[in-house]
Amino acid sequence: MALDYMLGLSEQAACIAYPDLDFDPPKRDKQAIKAAQDVCFSCPIRWECLLYAWETDIPNGIWGGAYFEQRNLMATLLGLSRLAPIQESLETIKRFTSSTRK
Ligand code: SF4
Predict the structure, then answer these.
(1) Ligand 1 center from residue 30 Cα (angstroms)
(2) Closest Cα to residue 75, out of 60, 62, 93?
(3) Ligand 1 atom with minimal separation from the 61 CA
(4) Which of 8, 45, 89, 102 is the most exposed place for a label (fewest CB within 10 A)?
(5) How would you class 101 by CB atoms within 10 Å of its CB: exposed for 0-12, middle for 13-18, buried for 19 or more?
(6) Does residue 66's CB lie within 6 angstroms of at least one atom of ligand 1?
(7) Ligand 1 centroid to 64 CA: how many Å?
(8) Structural domain that includes position 61
(9) Tell me: the pLDDT tens digits for 30-51?
């Protein structure tokens, strides 16, 4: 389900424009992490990407601007369920992020 959803959006991925950027840098390389996250933070499908990586339990890389542990933490804090429809999880994330921006 999540994969089908992501494939439908993949042309919007901001990282397409950065083929040489490392989205799985070593955690000690703060500069490389920031470079990857800056692209993710401006990506129009950031939350879809993060949810896809979380739902499919991808263990490595920065997806949606977050590492594996960060994705799991966010899902736990927001009470997300892998059994829920992706639209429902997206709405939960978007509600949370818009409420924290005020
Ligand atoms: S959130 Fe980051 S890794 Fe995911 S599609 Fe967008 S730019 Fe690529």
Answers:
(1) 18
(2) 93
(3) 3
(4) 102
(5) exposed
(6) no
(7) 5
(8) 2-100
(9) 999 999 999 999 999 999 999 9
Q: What is the share, in percent, of the chain residues with pLDDT greater than 90?
A: 79
The arithmetic mean of pLDDT across residues 8-31, rounded, is 93
Contact 66, 74 (CB under 8 A): yes
Atom 3 (ligand 1) nearest CA: 63
Domain count, the chain: 1
Relative to the CA of 46, which ligand 1 atom is closest? Answer: 1
- Which residues sit opposite 66 in a β-bridge? 63
Find the helix or strand (DSSP H, E) in which 95 lies: helix 86-100
- Give SS3 for 63: strand
Q: Are 70 and 20 in contact (CB under 8 A)?
A: no
* DSSP code of residue 11: G
- E runs forming strands in 1-102: none
pLDDT of residue 101: 64
Residue found under tokens 């818009």: 98
What does pTM read for this prediction? 0.90
